[in-house]
Specification:
One of its GO terms (molecular function) is DNA binding. This is Integrase/recombinase XerD. Residues 130-316 form the Tyr recombinase domain. This protein has helices at 2-8, 21-36, 41-60, 71-83, 89-105, 112-120, 137-148, 155-168, 172-176, 207-217, 240-256, 270-281, 286-293, 298-305, 308-321, and strands at residues 183-184, 189-192, 201-204. It has 322 residues and is mostly helical. It has two domains: 7-120, DNA polymerase, domain 1; 137-321, Intergrase catalytic core (hpI Integrase, Chain A), CATH 1.10.443. Strand 2 (189-192) and strand 3 form a beta hairpin. Helix 3 (41-60) crosses helix 5 (89-105) and helix 8 packs across helix 12 (270-281). The protein is elongated, with a radius of gyration of 24 Å. 25% of the residues are buried.
Length: 322
């Protein structure tokens, strides 16, 4: 309704943004930092356009420099975006994220108070969706096979953990903190206590994965209730970077062989993404998927329900009946 209203009513033209020598100094420095970080030119251009709007506002309206901005003045800027430039909340989020990057790269501290207060009051998007591609079981099997074909002495354990992450949809940090006291190794049920959302939840795995877990756990040196179930051969808790490296190396090798497209962003978190899409595809109600994955917001789960992978599958199914 609001969008229709905006289309019908006459609104003043947006203020023209002109680059000055003063703003150019900041823009050039920002571009240099972003290029050094290897950011794509198209992304940089979008960031620069938003930065110019910010610099134009503070130089001309507030007569302030970036390092002089206060909390109240940042609020004035975002009110300007909403009331005068008529920008949506989603676009304002982009400006907010843009300024976080800008102030970080410029090594300026005065954005921190506004950032902290905004997070506390949930002014902007309270979560960030990272656009990873999800996994299909076909790609997952290729990754597992690649791991099993290495000469690593821990390849069975590493593959088991990948399977476990897929089944449970657990974040890697949650899985690696699992203790024996939280694990029912007969039923295949695991209580995740150290979760991102600070709320406990129970996850499960298939019988095949459970059998593999029990097989690998026989080699553990420490098996007290407070001991972690995923251990090194020395009995130390397994570290996140070890599992991530194994997964990353397998994906890298498969990409070099042309078996996974170069532009497909497959990371360890793709297992969790893939589990969400897989459950939704199999008809699991979205509220149950939300609880199982430990999402605080239904909006996060809805993102997966509208994922590119699900849309592609939907089109294939429709094409079959045409």
């Amino acid at each position: 309704m609001q969008n229709l209203k905006n289309m019908i009513l006459f609104t003043p033209k947006k203020e023209e943004i002109k680059e000055t020598s003063k703003s150019k100094k900041w823009v050039d420095k920002f571009i240099a930092e972003r290029e050094f970080d290897g950011i794509k030119k198209t992304t940089i251009q979008g960031d620069v356009n938003r930065l110019k709007v910010f610099l134009n506002f503070i130089f001309n309206r507030l007569e302030k420099n970036p390092e002089e901005m206060t909390n109240a003045e940042f609020i004035k800027f975002f009110n300007y975006l909403e009331k005068e430039r008529k920008l949506s909340r989603n676009t304002q989020n982009k400006y907010y994220n843009n300024l976080k990057v800008f102030y970080k790269l410029m090594r300026l501290e005065n954005f921190k108070d506004f950032k902290d207060e905004s997070e506390e009051r949930k002014r902007f998007t309270s979560f960030e969706i990272k656009h990873y591609d999800s996994l299909s079981t076909e790609i997952l099997n290729m990754i597992l096979t690649e791991i099993l074909e290495t000469r690593s002495t821990t390849k069975i354990r590493d593959a088991m953990i990948i399977r476990f992450l897929w089944d449970t949809g657990a974040r890697i940090s949650e899985a690696l903190k699992l203790e024996y006291g939280d694990s029912d190794l007969e039923k295949g049920e695991f209580r995740l206590r150290n979760t991102k959302g600070k709320e406990e939840r129970i996850v499960t795995c298939s019988n095949d994965t459970l059998a593999l877990v029990n097989y690998c756990l026989k080699a553990n040196l420490r098996k007290e209730p407070k001991d972690k179930i995923f251990q090194t051969y020395k009995g130390e808790p397994l570290q996140r970077n070890r599992v991530s490296d194994v997964f990353r190396n397998a994906v890298k090798e498969l990409k070099s062989q042309g078996r996974i497209p170069e532009n497909k962003r497959v990371v360890i978190h793709s297992l969790r993404h893939g589990r969400a899409v897989d459950l939704l595809d199999k008809g699991m109600p979205i509220d149950i998927v939300k609880e199982y994955l430990g999402h605080k917001s239904l909006e996060t789960t809805l993102y997966y329900s509208h994922s590119k992978e699900r849309q592609e599958n939907m089109l294939k199914q429709i094409k079959k009946i045409l």
